[in-house]
Each structure stands twice: as structure tokens, then as C-alpha cells.
Amino acid sequence: MTINFTDIVIVAGNYGSGKTETAVNLAAACRRTGKSVAIADLDLVNPYFRTREARIPLEAMGIQVVLPDRQYLFADLPILAPAVADILRQPADVTILDAGGDDVGVTVLASLAAVLKNKPVRMLQVINAFRPFTGDVAGCLKIRKEIEASGKINITGLISNANLMDDTSVAHIYQGYDLVKQVSAHTGLPVEFITATPEIRSQLDLNRITCPVLTLDRHLLPPWKPTGAPPPSHLKLKT
Amino acid sequence: MAKAFSRPKALSTTHTHYCPGCTHGIVHRLVAEAIDDLGIQEKTVGIAPVGCAVLAYNYFDCDFQEAAHGRAPAMATGIKRVRPDLMVFTYQGDGDLASIGMGEIIHAANRGEKFTTIFINNAIYGMTGGQMAPTTMPGQRATTAPLGGTRPRPACPSAWPTCWANWSPRICHPPGRAQTPAGQQGQKKPLSRRFNIKWKTGASVLWKWFPPVPPTGA
Amino acid sequence: MAKVLMKGNEAIGEAAIRAGCKNYFAYPITPQSEVAEYLSKRLPEEGGVFLQGESEVAVGYMIFGAAGAGERVMTTSSSPGISLMSEALSYIAAAQCPAVFVNIMRGGPGLGGILPSQGDYFQATKGGGHGDYHLLVLAPDGVQEAVEMTMQAFTLAEKYRNPVMIMGDGLIGQMMEPVEFPDGLKTEPTNKDDWATNGMAHRNSKKRNLVKSLFLDPTALNDNNLALKAKYAQMKKEEVQYELVNADTDYQVLITSYGTMSRVCRTAIDMLKEEGIEVAMLRPKTLFPFPEKAVFDASGKESCQAVISIEMSMGQMVEDVERCVKGRRPVEFYGECGGDIPSPEKIIEIIKALL
């Protein structure tokens, strides 16, 4: 099973659910299938660990990365780059919007409503079962409702990004997947894919999972991880 | 024969440092009487300001905290929020409340904090020796206004409580005078009433407004 | 309890609740606002008090008032906000009230920037506010330790009736790590009836309590300062915490570093070890009291040629390190404080230059 997205994909979810890692890895995966890909950082909420930190490897793959001006990259200012509206007017094969967390983070989507109107849009809710407030179905539904009300756009699909960073085990992936399946049963929303790091993915029983698995390399790394290592394999464009 | 006059229980036996003619002692007594009337001495926490009344904690017999200059309403907020069962009041002068502590009192009022503020205005900085206050009146001399307050100051002095009252309908109570026996008696009932309301229902902040002694320097 | 994935800021908020602190007052500032956002959701669930004050100045006194009334209370802020709270910190220390302050440091001076920094070491350990006082300062190096130290902070604050500060840099607040919460603190502050303005009726006493910092009589003021000094001496005796890394080797260089910076140094030490170069690290977990004797002892190891303090500052903790090494070894410094955290490779380069 592979992810076969086109048009506009918005990655939303509760604060700290792993939207940015998911969006960046999704962009890489789509690019590897030969599609043109653009990604925009709409995270006006988070001060650190934003898409902008993955800019260099993404651009090296030929992905268009839309960020606020360089001089504002580390500003404590909610800046929405005007270029975001431009890439929505003239989308790539896949155009990914990395939204900010919670209902507050997707408020910006409402301002893009006019541009998004009548365009095919996938609006995905990322869920990490091991984050506060989304450990059960009720919590996930509450977040969904808040995001939809604030972003003025309905969620169309679910993603499980279950992880405890370096402490993640296969059991955690299954547990997160099962939660998202339950949310799916309550809402009728499809589970679009789940994520797993390469090491974990290799141990998964794929018969247990009825949706694609996105290989996820962490590259919004803390500064104590050595920088000399080559970039994760799947962030290299295969020739 | 029945005792006609005695020291209120909520007032300590310590002699005050206040100068002859100063109304702080009188207002302290009015506050203590109100506390006695309501029987809440053991549930009361007062907050002393910076200013001439900085030692107020020595003159009341109830729990007391002493704030930094202007910060009494923030302290009162902290106490009342974590211990809503206590009766909390601040006692502040015009330098403390209307100058350095303006932000704290306005925001406490706006949030509807459930404590009482006794505002004593003498239109001057007394503690530090007679410097100009925000409530110093036009023409009134001060050590930092040797020629008298000559610049136009349309909002001073009695306009402050009016501004506050207009700005937030929760701010209530008309000004009172503490200079005359009649004025003093006139303050007593409203004080008790307000303490009671604030403590039991905690509707809002109370403003007591004691206008200054008429300026003599002009 | 099972592990959860939390941001440092969220975890600090949850840790306070687990420590029995139901009262939080704060003012928003990057990069610590998530604490307030988290607690604004969680405290109402716990029947606690959440209040966003009108300024850090006011918040400092809300903390003072609540602490003076004998209730567990916490605030969080970041560098410029801590400057504004420093007045209240001086008053709270003088009046001997327990309270917990968290500083998720950003770059300074002035408005500086929002990226992580350790530029507030002097402010936290040497004063900040006026007068002879100290905070007890704890410096976590990750989310789990931030949780443990936050919980411990309440116990220490109550033991000494002194404000305790958690010093995390922006990264400690912003990064996500799996975390497990220890059992909650069960104890209530035991001595509060002796000093807190919790109401005479509440403590069933006819004696009123005063919370104040004004001592106009010179002898009384001196006595109060002596009482504070005795507490700081006791802290130095009983509360020093530090971690030694790779110190059982014949290390050539001793690094002193704390917080996020120490995590980078740890990686550098591992990488250097692979090259056959032994380097040790002393990581103070308490910045005040400072691990004076431990620094002196570790720097004295025969194999040790130099000591280097590595910080996200322009050289602050290094002054304490120099003081404690007492001239036995050369004390060097390396630091950056714009917000870019030095990489392990950079640290390796700096260490090699010392050899």
C-alpha cells in the first residue's frame, strides 16, 4: 500500500502531535514518486522545531519550501508568507500545508478560505496516542471539533503518528493505530496512513495494518545529535 | 454603667507613629470597628502599602502582609484567589495606588477581584517628605513642585475616582471625609456594609475616597 | 503511570499539579507560554486557580500573596519577565515565603531573541533583585529531570521558606521527550501555621501572623539577614546536586556545563572517547548552591590538564568554576548565546585545541 495524494494536503492536529515531522516526511515521500511538491510552513504557534528547520534537505530534493522571509525565520511573530496564497493558486502536483497546533494553529486556514474554496483539499488530523489530551477517542474528537470550528474546514482523514521519540516500540505503533481505528469507526473518516521510523517499520506485522505506513525519519533533531551524519536515506532524491 | 467607648478588638494596643491631625489613625479605627462589627477579625488579612501607612500592620490585630510600593492589589489577588474564605483588604495612599500602583488596581477592579481597597488621598507624598503626587492639586506646592503645580492637570485630584467609577460600574462608594466627627461617623456604616459584601459575596473592589486636607501651600 | 510524550513546558505544568500545587499565576512570554496554556486547561479540572496577571510585575506579587497565605504556588516566565519579577523575588526571599519560579531562558540582554540561552545565570544565582538574598536554583537537562526538579522544588521551597527557581533554557521548554511522572507529593507544608497569613481562625490561634520584609531597626534587619545567611549555609551543606560524566577515567579535560549545553557536551565526550580521548564533565544540577567542593576535587585529578566551562552565555558560570578550581588548573571558557547551540563537532574542536 502506498500513499497516493494529489492536490492540496493540510496537515493539522493537536499541539505536539508531530504534524511537522509528518508533513516533511510526506513531502519527501510524494517527491520520490516523481511528483512536483511544495510545502508551506503555516505554523504560527510554535516557536521552535518548525518546517523551516528541514528546509535545506527538502530543497535539495527539489521540493519548493515556502517560509517567511529569512530575516523573520526566528522571529516571535506570527507571519504568514504571502507566497502561501500563491502556491495555493498555482498548486504543485502535491501541495502540503503544515498547520500549527490545536484550534489556535489552524485559525490561519480561515484566512485562506477564499483561495481554498472549490479546490480539492485533504484535511488530515495527526494523532499521537501518547500525547496529553489525545490518549482516547473522546479527546481526539474534541480536538477535531475545535480544529474544524477554528479552521473553518472539515477534517477528511486521520493519521496515526504514535511515538515516544526514541522510546517507541512496535507495541506503541499498534496501540496508536488501534486508537485511530476507533476514531475512524466513530467518525467514518478514513485512516489515511500511519507513521513509523525505518527500524520500527521493519518489525511491523503489515497484515495487521490496513493502511499505508509512511516511513518517518526524525530530522528536527535536538542539538546534541551529531550533525556530521549523512541526511536520512529517504530524504535523498533517488535517481 | 455601660461602657460607652473602647478600643476595637481588631486594633492593637501599639501607639501609632502618625502625626497629630493625620487621619490615618481615625481611618484605622473605622476599619477595625467594621471588622469587629462583622466578627471577622480571625478571618481577615490586611495588606500594608508603602507610604506613611507602611507600618499599618503594627496597628491592626489580624494577619497582615506588607507589599512593595503599589503592589498591594496584586498581593490581595494572590491571597484571595487561593483562599476565598478570607476577608482581604488593602490600605493604600495616593502615591501607592494612584501613581506607582495604578496598573495593579485598575486590573484588579476590572477582573472583579473580591477584596476591599481603602484609598487614603492626601494629595502628597508624605513618607518621603512632601513630593508631588498624581493627585497634587493645581497650585499646591510640593518639594518637587516648589512653584506649585502649575502645569495643567485636568485629571487631578478628585477626578481619579470619578474616572475609575465611570470606567467600571463595579467600582462603587462615594468619597468620604475623615477630618470631622460627622464625616467619620458617615463612613462607618458604609465600611461595614462593604466589608460584608466583599467578604461574603465578593462582588468587587471597594473604593474609599478620603479627600485631602485643603492645600495650604498655594 | 505509563510514559507520555510531552514538551518540557507542559511537563513542568503537570509536575506542579502532581506536587500538589493548585495555584498558578503567569504572564505570556515566548518560549514558555505553553505552561500557561497547559495549566489553563488542567487546573480547572483539578479545582485549582489559574490566573493570567496583567504583567510580570503584578504576577510576582500574586505569587507573594498566595505564598504568604501558605498555599503552594508557582509561576513560569522567560528572561525579560524574570527581570520584572526580580523585585518580588527579593521581597519573597526577605519575607521567607516558599514559592516556585520557572525561568525558561531566552537570549538577552534586552528583548534579545526567542531562542534558547543560558544568559541568566548571574541573575538567578547572584541576585537579580536587590539585597542579600539567594534563590535555590535547579537546572534540569531534559524533560524528565524538569519534572523531577519541579516536584522537588516545592519540597525545597517549603523546607527553607525560600523561593526556588527552575532554570531551563528555551530548548528544555520546547523539546518533546517521553516522560514518566513520579508519585505525587503527599505532604502538606508542615510549618505554615507558624508564619503564614492563613487566618487566625484557620490555624485556631489568637496570635496573628505577619509576612513582611521591612525591618527599620538596624539590629532587626541585620538579624533577618543573618537568618537568611544561615539558611543559605544550610543549603550549601545539604542541597548540592551534580552529575559526573566519564569521571572514572584518566580524563585530560574536565568540562563544566549544565542544561541543554551539557547534553551536547555529553555527545562530544562519547565521540571523543571513540577517538581515544578521555574527557569528563561535571554537570551542576543545583546552580545555587554550587557544587564547589566537587569542582575543586574533579579539577584536581592528576590526569586533568585543564577545565573548560561550556555555556550558552558569554561566560557566567565560569566565574564560579574559576573560584572553585582555586588556580589549580587553567580554566577556559567557550560559549555562544545567539540561540544557535554549539554542535558536538564544535565542542570536539574546542576540546582538541586545549590538548
Brief write-up:
The complex is a heterotrimer of chains A (239), B (218) and C (355). Chain A is of the alpha/beta class and 239 residues long.
Describe the protein in words.
The complex is a heterotrimer of chains A (239), B (218) and C (355). Residues 228-239 of chain A have low confidence and may be disordered. Chain A has an 8-stranded parallel β-sheet, with helices on both faces. Chain A has one domain: Rossmann fold, CATH 3.40.50.300. Chain A contains 8 helices and 8 strands; from the N terminus they run E-H-E-H-E-H-E-H-H-E-H-E-H-E-H-E. With 239 residues, chain A is an alpha/beta fold. Chain A starts with 6 loop residues before the first strand and ends in a 24-residue tail after the last strand. Chain B has helices spanning 24-38, 72-82, 94-100, 102-111, 159-167, 181-200, and strands spanning 44-48, 63-66, 87-93, 116-120, 206-210. In chain B, strands 2-1-3-4-5 form a 5-stranded parallel β-sheet, sandwiched between helices. Chain B is globular and about 55 Å long. Chain C has 355 residues and is an alpha/beta fold. Chain C has 2 domains: 4-199 and 225-238, Rossmann fold, CATH 3.40.50.970; 242-354, Rossmann fold, CATH 3.40.50.920. Chain C has helices spanning 8-18, 33-45, 56-68, 79-95, 121-126, 143-160, 170-174, 218-238, 259-274, 292-299, 317-325, 344-354; strands at 4-7, 23-26, 49-52, 74-77, 99-105, 136-138, 163-169, 176-179, 210-211, 242-245, 253-256, 279-284, 286-288, 306-311, 331-335. The longest helix of chain C has 21 residues, at 218-238. Chain C is globular and about 70 Å long. Chains in contact: A-C, B-C. The B-C interface holds B 41-45, 47-48, 54-55, 57, 61-68, 71, 73-79, 81-83, 85-86, 103-104, 107 and C 23, 25, 49, 51, 53-55, 57-69, 71, 73, 87-88, 91, 95, 197-202, 208-214.
